[in-house]
Specification:
The protein is low in regular secondary structure. It has a domain of 44 residues. It contains one helix and two strands, in the order E-E-H. The protein has a two-stranded antiparallel sheet with strand order 1-2. GO terms for molecular function: chemorepellent activity; semaphorin receptor binding.
Length: 71
Amino acid sequence: MGQFKAQQTTSHAWVPIPVENNPVPHPAQVCVNKSKELTDNTLTFIRNHPLMDRSVNPAGGKPMLIQTQGL
């Protein structure tokens, strides 16, 4: 689980949110396939903080979707 980023205004830099300001449980701990199963607080936090501080690696360590032909 990682930190999210936030920005005070559009003229401010994106900075990591302190861990203690993340919702409990952390959104990664409540990962479900249906957004209707997430709490309003979790959905609001995710909507307002779309960036993670570090890159997010795919489950299993490899890409889940590979395109082999051009569009």
